[in-house]
Specification:
- The chain folds into 2 domains: about 280 residues, P-loop containing nucleotide triphosphate hydrolases (Rossmann fold), CATH 3.40.50.300; about 80 residues, Helicase, Ruva Protein, domain 3 (Orthogonal Bundle), CATH 1.10.8.80.
- Strand 8 and strand 9 form a beta hairpin.
- The protein is about 40% helix and about 10% strand.
- The strands form 4 sheets. It has a 5-stranded parallel sheet with strand order 4-7-10-1-11. It has a two-stranded antiparallel ribbon with strand order 2-3.
- With about 425 residues, it is of the alpha/beta class.
- It contains 17 helices and 11 strands.
């Protein structure tokens, strides 16, 4: 069920058959007036006591109420990293790494109620007005070219969706295949794949380290180019695929290929809660959600709406956020000091810092912003194999330089050409 299909949390929840409106008694506490940013909101809600538990009656409906994002206990870095990706997609996606049972999948799926709205194409191929402005009418499909000529909009403001990639997805499911319904009528048409549906949305890949290689390659190509082309027999179709990639993995189940690891901007380490009080509160909230999901969702409606508004405001402020040169130099020194080769390190570091500044309502990045996002932006970017490879190569380069120097010192000067002997002409008697 998508965000569009689910009732808006701002609306009152329907009462259960036993008359319970599904509102937690503690929800009447309200939102403190001193909340100034998303960070303040997370800190305040994390330490909040949820309240007593009531049993939900059986309504006979298969309703789905995602666990509230702000109801997650602890895990500050995970929550902050995911929010930064929502504010600024230029961070390059998020990878959650940790053992099973630490709330990685729950956290990602709970983002549904916080997702902002963006202009999304109405076209089957993802055509937008900006395509015409950049490349002319030839940059869009014929139908959209006619609409643009008539002054009709090619896009509409829609809520960002969370598109999940199943672990057993085939390559045809990911990129698209021949539409069987069109084939019955003697027509050839490409059915859109998951990557096309993920355009301008979030693409969530659970257990990303267990994906088939061909699926990983397709995701990498689409993420790098922002579009991909499908060829089936004589039919060819090109689709937009500009998405924010979010993945989760358990290192116990296998390593992640370096090619796809490099595509994730923020790398978040998700550990189990160490504080006993936090673990107890997490249990109480999980039990409350299992017993009465509507009550838990209703208990965090106000905070959820406030967080959504904060994200929208931060996204609107983001284009105005500047990175001073002296602050950028601090980030560059950190990257160089760690010996990181990939230029994506600076991109992720600076864009995450800009998102953090926008979340705090500031238009200038500070040194503190850089330091807060450095661990999640720069970890897991060094390769022991590449370090060893360059060390071996450096020794070889030194040997080559020594050989060149020795050859230059022992070389003899070129011999001058021998002068021709002059012969005396003998006069004939």
């Amino acid at each position: 069920m998508t965000a569009a299909d689910r009732p808006d949390p701002a609306l009152p929840l329907p009462p259960t058959p036993d008359g319970d409106p599904g509102v937690a008694p503690s929800a009447s506490e309200g939102i403190p007036s001193n909340i100034r940013s998303i960070k303040d909101l997370i800190d305040r809600v994390t330490g909040r006591h949820f309240g007593p538990l009531s049993t939900q009656g059986d309504s006979g409906l298969a309703e789905q109420w995602p666990y509230p994002f702000l109801a997650l206990v602890g895990q500050w870095e995970m929550k902050l990293g995911l929010l930064l990706a929502l504010i600024n997609p230029a961070v390059g996606g998020v990878l959650l790494i940790g053992p099973r049972g630490t709330g990685k999948t729950t956290a990602v799926r709970s983002l549904i109620d916080l997702l902002p709205s963006v202009n999304q194409s109405k076209c089957h191929f993802g055509c937008l007005e900006e395509d015409v402005e950049v490349g002319g009418l030839d940059a869009v499909c014929p139908e959209c070219a006619e609409k643009y000529g008539r002054g009709e909009p090619l896009s509409a403001l829609r809520a960002v969706r969370l598109v999940e990639l199943p672990l057993n997805a085939r390559l045809d499911d990911v990129v698209g295949s021949v539409d069987e319904r069109a084939a019955v009528h003697q027509r050839m048409r490409i059915r859109r794949g998951i990557l096309s549906h993920a355009d301008r949305n979030l693409l969530y890949v659970d257990e990303v380290n267990l994906l088939a290689d061909e699926v990983v390659d397709a995701i990498l190509d689409a993420a790098a180019q922002g579009a991909y082309t499908v060829r089936r027999a004589a039919v060819t179709a090109t689709y937009r695929s500009r998405f924010t990639l979010i993945g989760t993995m358990n290192p116990e189940e296998g390593r992640l290929r370096p090619q796809i690891l490099d595509r994730f901007g923020l790398r978040l380490l998700v550990r189990g809660l160490e504080n006993a009080d936090e673990r107890l509160e997490a249990y109480r909230r999980a039990r409350a959600y299992i017993t009465n999901p509507k009550q838990v969702v209703a208990g965090f409606v106000e905070e959820t709406l406030l967080a959504r508004d904060e994200i929208e405001s931060a996204r609107a402020l983001l284009p105005q956020v500047q990175l001073p040169d002296d602050v950028a130099q601090i980030g560059l020194k950190l990257v160089q000091g760690l010996g990181i080769d990939s230029l994506r390190a600076e991109i992720t570091l600076f864009e995450a810092a800009r998102a953090l500044a926008a979340a705090a309502g500031r238009t200038e990045v500070t040194e503190d912003d850089i330091r807060q996002v450095t661990p999640m932006a720069l970890r897991l970017r060094r390769s022991a194999y590449m370090d060893q490879y360059f060390d071996d190569q450096e020794r070889e380069e030194n040997e080559i330089a020594s050989a060149l120097g020795a050859a230059k010192g022992k070389a003899k000067p070129a011999a001058k050409p021998a002068a021709k002997k002059k012969t005396k002409k003998v006069a004939k008697k």
